[in-house]
Design a protein that fits this description.
- The complex is a heterodimer of chains A (about 475) and B (about 475).
- By secondary structure, chain A is of the alpha+beta class.
- Helices cover about 40% and strands about 20% of the residues of chain A.
- Chain A has three domains: about 290 residues, no CATH class; about 120 residues, no CATH class; about 60 residues, Arc Repressor Mutant, subunit A.
- In chain A, the strands form four sheets. In chain A, strands 1, 2, 6, 7, 8, 11, 12, 13, 14 and 15 form a ten-stranded mixed beta sheet that branches. Chain A has a three-stranded antiparallel beta sheet with strand order 5-4-16, with no helix packed on it.
- With about 475 residues, chain B is α/β, with parallel strands linked by helices.
- In chain B, strands 1-3-2-4-6-5-10-11-9-7-8 form an eleven-stranded mixed beta sheet, sandwiched between helices.
- The chains are: A alpha+beta (about 475), B alpha/beta (about 475).
- At the A-B interface, loops of A face helix 11 of B.
């Protein structure tokens, strides 16, 4: 699309994110909430909505919801009333979903985002509320019947609703990435969009910059990755602008995103909307949250990515880039934090994390929890490099792999065993330097006539003849002195 | 021949060795069999009850019988009983069996009660005559041309006609007390939340109470003692400790009682009923209680409030009966929408459909504030006003129903007329307070008349005391 046309419009996006909570049991029964079991094995009369059953709230659910609420600076609602959202669908066993309507457990608050160009922005939240998931309908191609799996029915969800503060697909991408990172840091959701444990619907509209009112809102569904949310938004924005430019009117509707084509298609218009007839659920007592409970949840909050970023850049003087990479994954950040309790060489520690350790994990597709070496061992490794006992090259290429093979041994022990301690004494390096100079008289002449680049060749030769043990700093000093 | 009309009589016979649980169960089974035409039990667990009776006889012989050993209980067809049929007298639950016990059933069994069968009722407990049942109407044993009341009509008749010692019913707007009055037995609706609702098929959750029907106050009190109290499976149940109701019957006090003048001035009240109520008032006075007339301005608002809120809740509570998971599914549908519509149209009776539609309407956007929200506000007013009165007075006394049992078909064409049968009983449900209906004489045609006492929340002990003292003299 023509940039000039695109730039006439303001894009307005609000996201509704559903996160499946990592509780052991469902929200209103003791049925397992685990994903991936054989169909209809995690079901009881309560899950199936048999006559006479009543819900009983799993207290972990409000606790998890409070965690994210407190992490996002939301207000916590003290008197929570659960509401019924009534509609008929085969995967909805009771004919209504128990959710929160007028009293969401969290209100206000914000999620901080950072864009590629470094811009920072707080995306305001409208609310976070608790609800239950529905089952899953399965329509098989050849069969005329629809099958329903109720394992997922009653699995707890939170819905995080943002204000219409997002202005581009990129911002939505950054927001969702941050939300996913938060739920993972808080360990309340595994954040897996492919499996549907994190789901996102986007409300998108466009308006001319000077317009007084928002444009007609279109809801887009069925995006199973953060990348696809961005793609869907970018396509939808373009579609809406082109339609307006062509004199068409945007209709309020729900559209579905097709990842294969990158397009959105109409699902239903607003006229077909259900009247959900929300009303307070008389089978479930209101939930009252005490200040003590809020305080307790607050006191147990883990360090959050932004706090860690702040600490890594301020206290540890790491570049933003390093800090950003480290806090991306909670476990990496925590490993790094522990490593920093054993070493003061923070930048070196960061280099080790982002370099050799990360490559090793990537190669074996391991998570840091499976990494065989303890932070204290890496700290020792860093210390012997910084002490000049082993060069970084030798440490990363030889010592580190040896340590991984024998994690019970210390770095120093292994360095000794494999004869990797470098030699920094002039007395033993000078004879090698002399030997090299004697061996390449032509190159020495060339060097002396100005080809300073040959120093590397001499260095390589010295390192080779010392079997890699010569301290490169000392060797290069001695070489330069001898050559000049 | 012994009739075993009360647990007192049963205990006496058991302790003297004049009867066994087996003979008692056999007696009731004979009664049920010989009065099949009253259409009381939907299902009788004859063999199971007899086996359990033998088991109880052994337990009693060893001196290990529970509090209810020898008590034979009938259960309204809205209470879950594991591996037993459960239909709420509706076609939509054809063939359904409960997979779990209601909390009240667990408690009865733990105290060695014997469950003899499940009883007919109005479909999903919606009705005042027992005419709205997929199993056909139950008849009043006092006169089979008259209704037994509803919705726990059969549960009242079972006690009236000596088919079991006590019945468990449910009361959402009078469904225990109104049939108790029509059948001349005692019916208690306890305080809302006094008894766990876990395992009670929901009609209108914020009104529903399980209630007890019996011939004596003692049996009623004993049953409540066993089944009431905190329960992990019902988050709305009260943690208030359960009183010793039976022991409390020994105490006698002089009470302050009020009667609502406009209940007696109403044009709908039958002369027989009015006179019986007035003489009951005189009797209370003569026993030294202070009885005064009061007025209650909100009387006319109680019934509309009740019907708006109960139908709203019912429309949602009954959504689960959709043919997808259990019960009846239409064989005629070709697609999902047809399956829903036809299943529910064929599975639910007319009255249930009427209430679902009414409830769906009052919750619909555009009408929600005018009906549902307004009715919630009025409910709060009525509750506050009633609570105020029950702080000044120990009880409100009134007829349980404006008329005695009417004839079959008498109100079938006009639902509003039928709803008026609940005029005096719904107040206790709207306010969540306990109320008891006790026999208060008969009409000239020999039909029972009921008298209702309503008390403050959790004052069941006092209600039982006044009921006993009234009946004993």
């Amino acid at each position: 699309m023509d940039e000039a046309i695109r730039n006439k419009y303001t894009v307005v996006i609000g996201l509704e994110v559903h996160a499946q909570l990592l509780t052991n049991t469902k929200i209103y029964t003791s049925d397992s909430a685990e994903y991936g079991a054989m169909p209809n094995t995690h079901i009881s009369p309560i899950t199936l909505g048999h006559p006479g059953v009543m819900p009983k709230l799993n207290k972990r659910v409000p606790e998890f919801a409070m965690k994210i609420g407190l992490a996002c600076n939301c207000e916590i609602t003290r008197h929570n009333i659960f509401a019924r959202k009534n509609y008929f669908y085969p995967d909805l066993p009771k004919g209504y979903q128990i959710t929160q309507d007028k009293t969401p457990i969290c209100t206000g608050g914000f999620v901080p985002i950072k864009l590629k160009d470094g811009t920072e922005k707080n995306i305001a939240l409208t609310r976070i509320h608790i609800e239950e998931d529905a089952g899953k309908s399965m329509h098989t191609v050849d069969e005329s019947d629809t099958l329903v799996d109720f394992n997922r029915a009653g699995v707890p969800l939170i819905e995080i609703v943002s204000e219409p503060d997002l202005r581009s697909g990129e911002e939505a991408y950054a927001y969702l990435t941050e939300v996913r990172r938060l739920v993972r840091y808080l360990e309340i959701c595994d954040g897996n969009m492919e499996e549907g444990s994190l789901r996102c619907d986007a409300n998108i509209s466009v308006m001319l910059h000077d317009a007084k009112e928002y444009g007609k809102k279109v809801e887009v569904k069925n995006m199973n990755s953060i990348r696809n949310v961005q793609r869907a938004i970018e396509h939808e924005v373009e579609r809406q602008i082109l339609a307006i430019e062509a004199g068409e009117e945007i209709i309020s509707e729900t559209r579905t995103f097709d990842a294969a084509t990158g397009l959105t298609a109409s699902m239903r218009t607003k006229e077909d909307l259900n009247d959900y007839r929300y009303f307070p659920d008389p089978d479930l007592a209101p939930l009252n949250i005490s200040q003590e409970w809020v305080d307790e949840v607050k006191s147990k909050l883990p360090s959050l990515p932004n706090d860690l970023f702040e600490r890594f850049t301020k206290e540890m003087q790491l570049p933003d880039y390093d800090a950003g990479v480290l806090v991306d994954t909670k476990e990496i950040a925590l490993y790094f934090e522990e490593l920093c309790q054993h070493t003061k060489y923070y930048k070196a520690a960061s280099n080790w994390m982002m370099g050799p350790i990360k490559s090793y994990l990537n190669e074996l597709t391991l998570s840091i929890e499976k990494f065989p070496l303890k932070p204290i061992q890496i700290a020792e490794l860093i210390r012997i490099v910084e002490d000049g006992k082993v060069s970084f090259a030798v440490a990363s290429q030889k010592l580190f792999p040896h340590m991984l093979q024998a994690p019970e041994k210390s770095a120093e022990q292994i360095a000794q065993e494999h004869n990797l301690i470098q030699d920094s004494s002039s007395d033993s390096i000078q004879p090698i330097v002399d030997e090299v100079i004697a061996a390449f008289p032509d190159k020495v002449a060339a060097y002396q006539s100005g080809k300073k680049g040959l120093l590397g060749m001499f260095m390589g030769e010295v390192m080779k003849r010392s079997k890699g043990k010569a301290d490169p700093k000392v060797a290069s000093q001695l070489l330069e002195k001898s050559l000049n | 021949m012994k009739k075993y009309t009360s647990f007192g009589e049963i205990s006496d016979c058991l302790s003297k060795g004049e009867a066994s649980c087996e003979t008692i169960v056999n007696h009731y089974l004979d009664q049920i069999e010989s009065q099949r035409d009253l259409n009381v039990f939907v299902e009788v667990y004859a063999e199971e009850a007899l086996n359990r009776a033998k088991e109880m006889d052994q337990k009693i012989a060893k001196g290990q019988g529970g509090k209810l050993a020898g008590m034979v209980v009938g259960i309204k067809d809205v209470i879950c009983h594991k591996d037993h049929g459960l239909q709420a007298a509706s076609k939509i639950l054809d063939g359904f069996q409960s997979q779990f016990n209601a909390t009240v059933i667990d408690r009865l069994i733990a105290e060695d009660a014997i469950i003899i069968g499940r009883q007919n009722c109005d479909e999903f407990a919606m009705g005042s005559s027992n005419e709205n049942s997929a199993f056909g109407p139950t008849k009043n044993a006092a006169n089979p041309e008259h209704v037994p009341g509803g919705s726990s009509g059969a549960s009242a008749v079972a006690v009236q006609a000596n088919m079991c010692t006590v019945s468990l019913g449910s009361d959402t707007g009078g469904s225990v007390r109104q049939p108790a009055a029509f059948c001349g037995v005692i019916g208690l609706k306890p305080t809302y939340s006094r008894i766990s609702r876990y395992g009670l098929i929901a009609y209108a959750s914020s009104f529903d109470s399980i209630g007890v029907l019996s011939t004596t106050v003692e049996d009623n009190a004993l049953m409540l003692e066993v089944i009431a109290g905190a329960d992990d499976f019902d988050s709305t149940v009260s943690n208030e400790p359960v009183d010793n109701y039976v022991k409390g019957l020994g105490e006698s006090k002089k009470y302050k009682i009020a009667y609502i003048q406009n209940t007696l001035d109403s044009s709908g009240i039958a002369t027989d009923v009015k006179e019986a109520t007035l003489s009951a008032i005189e009797k209370l006075k003569s026993k030294g209680h202070e009885v005064s007339p009061i007025s209650f301005d909100l009387l006319d608002y109680i019934l509309p409030t009740y019907y708006i809120l109960t139908t709203a809740e019912a429309s949602s509570n009954l959504s689960r009966y959709d043919g997808v998971k259990y019960g009846y599914r239409t064989p005629h549908a070709h697609n999902l929408e047809e399956m829903y519509k036809m299943t529910r149209e064929e599975g639910f009776g007319k009255e249930v459909q009427r209430r679902i539609m009414l409830g769906t309407f009052v919750l619909s956007s555009g009408y929600y504030d005018a009906y549902y929200i307004k009715a919630q506000k009025v409910r709060r007013l009525i509750r506050e006003k009633t609570q105020e009165l029950l702080q000044q007075y120990d009880f409100l006394v009134m007829p349980t129903t404006p008329t005695a049992a009417f004839k079959f078909g008498e109100h079938s064409d006009d639902p509003i007329e039928m709803y008026l049968a609940d005029l005096y009983t719904v107040q206790a449900n709207v306010c969540g307070v306990p109320a008891i209906s006790i026999p208060n004489g008969e009409t000239t045609d020999g039909l029972p008349i009921g008298l209702q006492f309503m008390g403050a929340a959790f004052q069941e002990k006092k209600l039982y005391q006044i009921a006993k003292s009234f009946l004993d003299s």
